[in-house]
Structure formats: structure tokens, C-alpha cells
Amino acid sequence: MISETSTEKILVIGALGQIGKELTEALRNKYGKERVIASDIREPDFDNAPHITLNVLDKEALISCIREHEIKVIFNLAAILSAKGEENPQMAWQINMDGLLNSLEAARETDISRIFWPSSIAVFGPGSPRQNTPQDCIMDPNTVYGISKLAGERWCAYYTEKYGLDIRSLRYPGLIGYKGAAGGGTTDYAVDIFHEALKSGNFTSFLDKGTYLPMMYMPDAINATLRLMEAPRETLKVRTSYNLAGISFSPDEIAAAIQRHIPEFKMAYGPDYRQAIADSWPQSVDDSAAQKDWNWEAAYDLESMVKDMLLHLRERYKAVGA
Q1: Is the confidence at residue 56, as pLDDT, over 90?
Q2: Is 269 a catalytic site residue?
Q3: Would you tell me how many other CB atoms lie within 10 Å of the CB of residue 163?
Q4: How far apart, in Å, are the Cα atoms of 141 and each of 150, 151, 282?
Q5: Measured CA angle at 201 (ends 197, 206), to 5 deg
């Protein structure tokens, strides 16, 4: 497992994304700044050192980075999400699939001890049970994002069995956080709604009222990621990706929760092409395997998440004079 007393170096690929920013910060707080190398295809517009510019599609550059910095642990977060993926399926497949395979091959050719790669509830589809979706069931994703994540899960299991790599993964639900912008997913309305509630007092959801989806507050997602990566290898029974549950709610429910803090907030609905994607996904998931294998438990419910989001966003807007 990752040790706080070790000197092993950690590489975060996609460190400027929605998850990457917060995960990099959490890893540095836990293991020390110099042990965590941030990387992204873009240059940061803030102090993110140590940071390197890296394209995960360039396998040789990735291998060179691993060897130069003596990397032992990789978090590969590079991906194009569901809604953006439907706009350019071929590019989404290339980044999501080739990026994973490059990191797996790089790990096989070097001395990587552990890899984290995120999957998603998008691996489920119209044929999957929508309520309390189990760890193992029919998976028939109908988005390129979901297809790439399902294929990626099988590659992770293959490299674990065939080559003995230690690859760990979570099926993230929709993620909500205040530190970074949403990344082009079908659940992004649940991030944007907070910003608009504070800035304009009005929001139009691209998902219809009553559209339940599994969601999670970012602090819970980061905590789950760290806990999974710290778990002893022998306790992990799932080598594809663990279901991860937090909060299930609909647009009208989160609007009502925000209105309890901002009574004048107004919500409208204008469903678009993302509605069909949401309708193919689970409304809730069963994460009992994660609970059993590495004692997972979410800390936030809808009310505590809304309260914390508004608190931090108000502080942020006040700081920039918005």
C-alpha cells in the first residue's frame, strides 16, 4: 500500500481536471508535495509544481517520465466525459482507451507498484437494473464514454491476471465540487446549479425534474480514492471496478435543497440530448462490495453537501469580488 513514510513518487495524469486538481492537493497534503508529480497536456495557470506537461497518448514520453522521476504509483485521470464524448466519439475513444493502455503498458515495462484508473456508472445501460444497481449485472452502455469505460475495466482485469499488475478502480457517480469546473459530463448540472444560484438566482436544468442519478460530493470521492489505494492488496476482491455510492437525487430535489438557503432561487427545465444518456443510467447503485472489502462509507448527504458547497462558493466569490 502507499505509505506516508515511504519515498515512492506518485504521478497524477490529468492533474488539471475536475478530479485531478483536488486529488493532487489531497495526495500532497497526505504524502508531501515533492512526492506527487502533477501532469497534464496543458500548462497550469497557477502554482502546481512539481508539474510536467505530458500527453498520455505519447507512451514513450510517459515511460521516460516514469523513469526520470522514479515513479512508483500512477493515478491516470485523463478522459473525455459522457456529453463531450458524444460530440466527438472517435477522439473520446482514443483518449479514454489508448490513454489507459499506454499507462498499463508503461507500468508493465517499468517498476510501477500500483495504478488507479477511474471508471464510471456510465458502464451501465438500458438493460442494467436501475435501482440499487449491483456490482455485477448486465452492462450495455450506449455512449462512447460508457463503452470505453467498460472496455477499460476488462483491460484492467486482464493486466492484473496476465501480468500481475496492481490496478485499482472506482465506478464514480456524478461528482460535485467547488474547487474546479465540471468536465463535460451528463451530471454537470448539479455543479452549475450552485454557481448560477449565487450569481443570477436562476438556473435551467438540461435534465428534467424527477431524473434521479447517483451523485457524490467531491470530498467523499477523494476520500474513497485514497482509501482504496491504501487498502492491502489481498483484501480487494473486485479487479474490474468497484461500485461507489453517495447520494441519489433529482434536479428538483437539489433545487429545493438550495432554496432552503436561497429562497428566491428559481429553477426551470429544458431537457436536451443529455436526458437520453441520463435515462439509460442507474438511479442508485449498490456499493456493498466496497463496504465489505475496504470499509467504504460516504460522509455527506444532500443537505450537508448543499450547505458546504454554498459556504465555500460564497467565500470564493467574495474573495474575487464577484
Answers
A1: yes
A2: no
A3: 12
A4: 8, 10, 11
A5: 65
The reply to whether omega before 219 is within 30° of 0 (cis) is no
Q: Any residues with CB less than 8 A from the CB of 118 and at least 6 apart, and which?
A: 19, 77, 79, 169, 170, 172
Instruction: Name the β-bridge partners of 170.
Output: 242
Q: Pairing between strand 51-53 and 36-40? A: parallel
Closest CA relative to residue 171, chosen from 190, 143, 192, 146? 146
Give the span between the Cα atoms of 254 and 194, in whole angstroms. 10
8 Å CB contact between 293 and 237: yes
Distance (Å, whole) CA 289 – CA 277: 26
Which position has the grid cell 512508483? 72
Q: Given the C-alpha cell 516514469, which residue does it identify?
A: 66
Among the listed residues 145, 172, 189, 300, the single catalytic one is 145
**Mean pLDDT score of the chain, rounded to an integer?**
95
236-287 pLDDT, tens digit per residue, is 999 999 999 999 999 999 999 999 999 999 999 999 999 999 999 999 999 9
Phi/psi of residue 230, nearest 5 degrees: -90, -10
pTM: 0.95
Torsion of CA 175, 198, 252, 149, to 10 degrees: -20
> DSSP code of 10?
E
Start-to-end C-alpha separation, the chain: 43
Phi and psi torsions of 123, nearest 5°: -70, -20
Contact 9, 27 (CB under 8 A): no
